[in-house]
């Protein structure tokens, strides 16, 4: 049973509930036998005149009474079963969705590098729905049916083992057929799930990229690749149905041969005088009745195989090791130090994969440090490593003398504010989008942060001011407005370390002035790391670190670096020249 818990990835409560659901389902199945047993008894009474015996009327009335009582028991047992199977399975599905989301929050970014959004959405929605279905419609029924069948098998065997043998002799053969098809079904399930993921990925890409698709005239090409993905999905779904259908139908045919064997064996025993007519009739009624649950059992087993395949990715996700660390260690000094750090995104040590190479540098506390260098030199990567989005492959990063690998990532994040070029806004009100920076902030503090970052003026023009819904990723706002909201968020968080990654790169001069004003309020008295392409914007930084191909090449302030006449000076001059460029 414990294997079932890990197979279905259940929580402790979910596992306890599943055991209750199996018990309730078994109880309900056994209760359903009561009317059947009573009907047989009534039947036996009514047929007595055929053998010259008299009908026992008081016994018959008792049986009618028993029938009514059995109906009440069936009703109560079904109600209990419903509550225990369906209600608890939906609760458990909700829990498992939450635990997947919780796990995703704790996973290192390296985990996401090999997975796309549609796969993770499938993990949270479809895989959890599969578990929900298995919990509500498969496992309890599978176990309960098995118990009921075993119960009837024992009862009939006690009465007449020869008839029991003829009734159940085909069961092991048909179960073996289904079990033997496990490999084929797993392969078909894998292919179908792969096709499903591919199709949902294509749909997502098509919808997300609709602007580019239209502007580049890719409608035809992109639509045909989406079309191909959907056709493949259809093909795989049909293959899956056919593949499963062949085995299930084959197993059912073998199973139902048991009815013929029972009739043949019963008739043979009757002609030899080894069984009486009425018991034989009862066996015939039982055999017809029992084959219903047996057929259901044969169709439920393949669903269990499918579930195993469908939840493979979810299992990998839930078993992936999360980033850990101490949440109780407090940082008191914001001096950041990188000691001989090397890093590659795919965790491989070959030179061509290494993005950061034996990098040692110091980012002084309460000062502005700029990371500059040619595109792809590793500026953003360094900032991601400092925030522990990824762990370094070798060397170490210390903040205030403490290795950040020993700190809980969420705890570490509490010391940092980020302003990225790509602002992520949620489909919520302006107010709540700012408050994300500090969920404990009062309304006054949120409004103050919005005013300080020049959000107030555009928010007051929105139809419902701070209560205006922003739509998915704030599509109703301009780039500059979105950026100001993200700075308001960071200001509200008031973290001692601020990371600015190309925060003003794509803004027009008017917006840039507003954002510079907002940023200067945000970074006052903080340890600031600025990543910038336009060197003009970091001329005033206390320290400028120049990177090239993941290595430190120069460091100093603007004047010192200009005097060195190295890479920085070259890049600076090139950018100055390009200012005169026009179309
Ligand atoms: N998630 C990722 N997975 C694999 N490689 C990555 C990933 N992110 C960045 N890289 C690679 O790492 C290298 C450094 O990227 P990074 O974004 O740090 O450079 P950058 O200096 O910030 O560039 P830019 O100035 O163009 O933004 C690049 O070669 C890039 O292709």
TrEMBL record:
Record has Membrane as a keyword: yes
Subcellular location per the Swiss-Prot or TrEMBL entry: Cell membrane
Occurrences of domain ABC transporter (ranges): 336-574
Transmembrane parts of this sequence: 21-47, 59-77, 142-159, 242-265, 277-306
Cellular component, GO annotation: plasma membrane
Family matches, as Pfam families: ABC_membrane (PF00664), ABC_tran (PF00005)
Superkingdom of origin: Bacteria
Alphabetically ordered keywords of this record: ATP-binding, Membrane, Nucleotide-binding, Transmembrane, Transmembrane helix, Transport
SUPFAM superfamilies on file: ABC transporter transmembrane region (SSF90123), P-loop containing nucleoside triphosphate hydrolases (SSF52540)
SMART domains to which the protein is assigned, alphabetical: AAA
Keyword Hydrolase: no
Designated name of the protein: ATP-binding cassette, subfamily B
Organism listed in the record: Anaerocolumna xylanovorans DSM 12503
């Amino acid at each position: 049973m414990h294997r079932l818990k890990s197979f279905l990835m259940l929580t402790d409560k979910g596992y306890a509930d599943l055991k209750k659901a199996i018990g309730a389902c078994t109880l309900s199945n056994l209760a359903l036998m009561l009317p059947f047993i009573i009907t047989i008894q009534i039947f036996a009474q009514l047929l007595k005149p055929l053998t010259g015996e008299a009908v026992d009327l008081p016994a018959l009335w008792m049986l009618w009474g028993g029938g009514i009582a059995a109906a009440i028991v069936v009703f109560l047992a079904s109600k209990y079963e419903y509550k225990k199977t369906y209600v608890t399975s939906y609760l458990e599905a909700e829990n498992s969705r939450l635990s997947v989301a919780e796990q995703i929050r704790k996973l290192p970014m390296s985990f996401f590098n090999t997975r796309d959004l549609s796969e993770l959405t499938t993990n949270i929605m479809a895989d959890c729905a599969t578990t929900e279905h298995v919990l509500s419609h498969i496992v309890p029924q599978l176990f309960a049916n098995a118990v009921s069948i075993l119960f009837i098998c024992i009862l009939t065997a006690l009465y007449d083992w020869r008839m029991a043998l003829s009734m159940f002799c085909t069961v092991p053969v048909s179960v073996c057929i289904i079990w033997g098809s496990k490999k084929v079904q797993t392969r078909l399930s894998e292919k179908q799930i792969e096709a499903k993921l591919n199709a949902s990925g294509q749909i997502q890409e098509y919808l997300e990229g609709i602007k580019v698709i239209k502007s580049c005239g890719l409608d035809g090409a992109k639509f045909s690749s989406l079309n191909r993905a959907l056709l493949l999905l259809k093909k795989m779904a049909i293959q899956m149905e056919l593949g499963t259908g062949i085995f299930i139908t084959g197993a059912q045919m073998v199973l139902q041969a048991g009815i013929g064997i029972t009739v043949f064996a019963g008739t043979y025993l009757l002609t030899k005088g080894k069984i009486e007519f009425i018991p034989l009739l009862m066996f015939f009624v039982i055999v017809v009745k029992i084959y219903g649950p047996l057929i259901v059992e044969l169709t439920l087993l393949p669903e269990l195989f499918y579930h195993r395949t469908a939840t493979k990715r979810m299992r990998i996700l839930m078993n992936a090791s999360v980033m850990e660390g101490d949440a109780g260690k407090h940082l008191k000094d914001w001096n950041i130090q990188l000691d001989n750090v090397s890093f590659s995104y795919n965790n491989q040590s070959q030179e061509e994969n290494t993005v950061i190479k034996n990098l040692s540098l110091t980012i002084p506390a309460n000062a502005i440090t700029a990371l500059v260098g040619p595109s792809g030199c590793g500026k953003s990567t360094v900032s991601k490593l400092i925030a522990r989005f990824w762990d370094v492959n070798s060397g170490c990063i210390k903040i205030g003398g403490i290795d950040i690998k020993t700190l809980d990532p969420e705890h570490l994040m509490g010391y940092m504010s980020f302003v990225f070029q790509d602002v992520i806004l949620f489909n919520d009100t302006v107010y709540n989008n700012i408050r994300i920076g500090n969920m404990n902030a009062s309304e006054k503090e949120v409004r103050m942060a919005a005013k300080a970052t020049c959000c107030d003026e555009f928010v007051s023009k929105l139809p419902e001011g701070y209560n205006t819904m922003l739509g998915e990723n704030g599509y109703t706002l301009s780039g500059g407005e979105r950026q100001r909201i993200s700075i308001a968020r960071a200001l509200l968080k008031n973290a001692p370390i601020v990371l600015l990654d190309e925060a003003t790169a794509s803004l027009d001069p008017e917006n840039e002035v507003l954002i510079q004003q907002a940023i200067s309020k945000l970074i006052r008295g903080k340890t600031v790391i600025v990543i910038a392409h336009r060197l003009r914007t970091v001329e005033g930084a206390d320290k400028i670190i120049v990177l090239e191909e993941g290595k430190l090449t120069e460091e100093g302030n603007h004047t010192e670096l200009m005097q060195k006449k190295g890479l920085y000076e070259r890049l600076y001059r090139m950018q100055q020249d390009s200012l005169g460029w026009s179309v």
